[in-house]
Hints:
Blueprint: E1 10-16, H1 24-28, E2 39-42, E3 45-52, E4 55-63, E5 73-79
Antiparallel strand pairs: 1-5, 2-3, 3-4, 4-5
Amino acid sequence: MVKKVVALNAKFMVKVKPKAPFNFDANVNKPSHFPAYVEDYMKGVYWQTMRFSGKVLGLKMENIGNALHLRRLVLEKRNQKNRMSRKTNPTLS
Length: 93
């Protein structure tokens, strides 16, 4: 199998507040009996690659809060070329 490295420099990031009760590590870390090389996990951070409409995407979820009082997640999407602009996506403003 040939592995190709692709730089995913363009990114879109959003912070979200999940509803209680929420435990990031218990919800995100679901190791499979058959390991998938398109995902990686370490405490508090989860990465996954995928193809969508023929484009390679990198997805990252990161826990930036604590489980009791301040529950916050950062969701980040990376791709090769950022085709979104402030005109077409008002959330980038």
